[in-house]
Amino acid sequence: MVVQFSLPLPPSINSQYVTVGNRRVLSREAQAFKRQVKRQLALLQQRDTISEQFLALAHQGYIALFLDFYFETPLRRDLDGGLKITQDSICTSLGINDNRVVDIHLVKRIDPLHPRLEVELEALSDWQFEHDRQVLIK
C-alpha cells in the first residue's frame, strides 16, 4: 500500500538544533516543522488518504520511504540533511516506530519557485531479511 503527499522542506541540519546551556535541543524552526507534519498527516487521515488499513499494515509490517527534496538551488543544501527529522516527524505523527523503516530513497531536485518535499510512503507486508544470517536480538 502506498500513500503520497507533499510537505514543506524541513530545516537544514544546521538549523535543526540549538544549544541551551549544555544541552542540544530542537530549534523553534525544527519544532514548527514537526508540528506542520503532524497537522498535515492528521488532515490526510481525516480525508482517508492515509487509511486505517494503511496504518494497520504499517504497524504490523515495515516501511519504505521515498523522499524527493525540491530545493531552490542545487548546491546550497545536502540531500541527506532533512532525512532524520522528516523520518522522525512522519513516523511519530503516525504512531509508528521509525525502526520499521527498512528502505529509504532520497532524490535531490530543483524548483526555485516551489521548494517542497514530495513523500511516498509504502507499507510493506512482505519484507524479508536475509535468511542465511543469524539475527541477534537484544
UniProtKB/TrEMBL annotation:
InterPro entries registered for this protein in UniProt: Endonuclease_RusA-like (IPR008822), RusA-like_sf (IPR036614)
Classification via Pfam families: RusA (PF05866)
GO biological process: DNA recombination; DNA repair
Molecular-function GO term, any one: magnesium ion binding
Protein name: Endodeoxyribonuclease RusA
